[in-house]
Amino acid sequence: MARKPLEGVRVIDLCVVWAGTFATLLLADLGAEVIKVENPFVWHPMTRGGRARPPKEMLQGLGVAWSIGYPNREPGPRPWNYSPTFVQMFRNKKSFTVDLRRPEGLDILGRLAEKSDVVVENNAAGTLEKLGVTYEWLKNHRQDIIMLSMPAYGLTGPYADARALGVHLESVMGHTLLRGYSDLDPSSTSVIYSADYMAGAQGALAVMMALWQRERTGDGQLIEMAQAENASGMFAQAFMDYALNGNAHGPIGNRSVFGAAPCGVYPCRSSGGAEMAEDRWIALTVTSDGEWTALRRAMGDPEWARSPELNCQSGRAARQDFMDQKLAEWTAQFDDYDLFHRLQAAGVPAAPVLEVSRAFDDPHVQARGLYQPQRLYDGLGPYRFCTPFYRFPETPLDVYQPPVALGEHNDYVYKELLGVSDKEYERLRAAGHVAMDFDPSVP
Predict the structure, then answer these.
(1) Phi, psi of 300, rounded to the nearest 5 degrees
(2) Global confidence as pTM
């Protein structure tokens, strides 16, 4: 089989939560050997789950928190290997354990750095520095090493020491107030995690560019990628409109930021009958006069749609409330999938609004094989998990390592990569560095 694009590249993963962890997932999918460094004495919330050993009563009290969906709703003896917070992000990676708070643990990391190409981290400001892990320290172990640091707000500036998750970055950069509906305040806006995933994708790209540059120059480098600045790229139009015109926009619901009309989400008939039409929805957007003509034709050209005022985009945008009402009356007659295919055949951009369960079993998703059966550590499963997002016909990508268990590759890292003797390995195990369970002191 052909080599994967990043085969031969070794990455040390010092990441927590999602942004950095998603970056290393993409690198791993592309063939890099990603080694997740984990401390059995330290728990990082929302990396391998909310808690190492969550009591069942706590799980029952968390209600709609979908990140606690353990297999069969049972945390099991090693919950850290099964939490959905972790499972989707840890495929195709290796894991080894070491206590970096101790000098010998730091020495072990240094020895691994000598044999690695890249280090990726997105810890809270100052976390790694307190341990002694800096870019200069890494360079002492390998001169051409590449380090990607993904601080929340950057390594400099008034907010450099601030702690944040994706939701806070989106708030401070203006995204939270751009979402939702104009008649509701931000307290009704749901939390999303797009900043984490966008940061991860951009971080992986930055690493690949640094590797390419190193091939040309022989030099490594420190990449700084402030996640907040990266998040601003998701809604650059809002910043530019303010810079150019002084417009400070608020939320507009499902309306189009480009003025396309009609644009919205409309009710469809559910399998339970017309009286439950609110259970099914379809997203529909008309971006041109030609698409408006196509929509009229698909609707049977009703009298209300023949109004001359609706023949141009500005006229439709001015009467969107009226069109929303009329469209909702029409769409409510149809099954969402049937209407989706009808509108697509007519040349109108539309798609059903699917909950996770229906998206999981969507015929297109099934045909593409996005979710494939995999087993978790300890033989749990199989369950269907997401596969790599890229398709390289000449260098096929796949899931060659199911979500990695804590310390699953201790033998490989310590003995094969670092050359630790059996006797020394057992000493490190007795000292707590080598483990497959979090220490009992970790809640």
Answers:
(1) 85, 20
(2) 0.93
Claim to verify: residue 179 and residue 52 sit in the same structural domain: yes
Residue 419 domain-assigned?
Answer: yes
Distance, in Å, from the CA atom of 133 to the CA atom of 109, rounded to the nearest integer, reads 9
Mean pLDDT to the nearest integer, 42-55: 88
Do 337 and 271 contact (CB within 8 A), yes or no? no
Q: Indicate which CATH number applies to the domain containing 112.
A: 3.40.50.10540
Is the pLDDT assigned to residue 278 strictly greater than 60?
no
Say if residue 185 is in the same domain as residue 276. no
Q: In 119-190, which ranges are continuous DSSP H helix?
A: 127-131, 135-141, 166-172
User: pLDDT at residue 181 above 60?
Assistant: yes
Helix axes 19-29, 194-217, angle to 10 degrees: 50
Indicate the burial class of 222 (C-beta count within 10 angstroms; 0-12, 13-18, 19 or more).
Answer: middle
Span 291-316, average pLDDT: 98
Q: Which of 19-23, 67-71, 150-154, 291-295 has the lowest mean pLDDT?
A: 67-71
50 and 178 fall within a common domain = yes
29, 5 contact by CB (below 8 A):
no
Rounded to 10 deg, the angle between the 289-299 and 336-346 helix axes is: 130
Task: List Cα–Cα distances, 379 to 71, 114, 209, 224, in angstroms.
Answer: 12, 35, 38, 40
Q: Are residues 87 and 147 in the same domain?
A: yes
Q: Count the domains in the chain.
A: 2
d(CA 24, CA 12): 9
Please provide the size of the chain in residues.
Answer: 443
- The answer to whether residue 347 is domain-embedded is yes
295 or 181, which is more confident:
295
Pairing of strands 33-38, 10-13: parallel
**Same domain, yes or no, for 183 and 268?**
no
Quote the CA–CA distance of 112 and 31 in Å, as a whole number. 19
Give the CATH number, domain containing residue 269: 3.30.1540.10
Please check whether residue 277 lies inside any domain of the structure. yes
How much is the pLDDT for 176?
85
